[in-house]
Amino acid sequence: MADSDTVAVSCAAQLVNVGWAADGLPGQGKEILKGVSLKIPAGGLVGVMGPSGAGKTTLLRLMAGLLRPTRGRAFLFGADITDMPEAKLNSLRRRTGFVFQSAALFDSMTVLENVAFPLLEHARLSKREAAQKADEKLRLVGLEGVGHLMPAQLSGGMQKRVGIARALSLDPELILYDEPTGELDPMAAEAVESVIKDLQAKMGVTCVLVSHDVRAVLRLSEMAAVLHEGQIVAVGSPDELAGCDHRVVRAMLSRQTRAV
Ligand SMILES: Nc1ncnc2c1ncn2[C@@H]1O[C@H](COP(=O)(O)OP(=O)(O)OP(=O)(O)O)[C@@H](O)[C@H]1O
Ligand SMILES: [Mg+2]
Known about the structure:
The protein is of the alpha/beta class.
């Protein structure tokens, strides 16, 4: 078995030679992900960067079991989720928080109701207990006191942080961030970055951070992968990537946030 094929039981998440095609048919032709292998060690912060359309969101959805591989295998908390029945997979998904690329908040609910929603759906808490817990999560992302507002009354950066608070509501062991700093001004992006860093460093939550924002990925990640046209072309520490002479990596790092 090649190293990329080895299943690491201690990993929070792992993809082994995963391909994904929208038509469900394996084969290189229409594949959006073309044989991706990636390990997410428990407690780590792994970045995945790549230009728009590279397959970053698809990769995250496969990790969370929101999509199933058309070839290869996906593992979550050491369990093979490739063909796992939905009911069983749901219990693993509850240990995972997903921060969507668009904040994906419910417009007709207050901020507090948005954050409390997964608690009421899955944790069998009373409304009062759920509200208390949601308040706690809003405090963690630096948003105390805004629970009564509607999402439309918040800035984009604040909405992103509400999305993070909601992903945190069930105390996940793994958080998957899809473009958490996308389209934010530098100050709002910095606030979101420091929330991400604190959650991992102080609370030990495993993180996967997917972004076309190369600078944010390199600042935050211990290890990062470069995804290009559905394939991982390099994996390494920020320093290792800086010294990497792969054409795509060099182009990405030199152009920073622009597409390759
Ligand atoms: N359900 C789907 N059906 C068909 N094509 C899809 C589907 N989901 C994604 N794609 C295609 O797969 C490619 C990768 O999409 P994906 O959203 O994963 O890219 P991305 O790297 O997240 O891009 P961005 O940086 O713009 O968010 C795109 O060409 C997209 O059109
Ligand atoms: Mg995306």
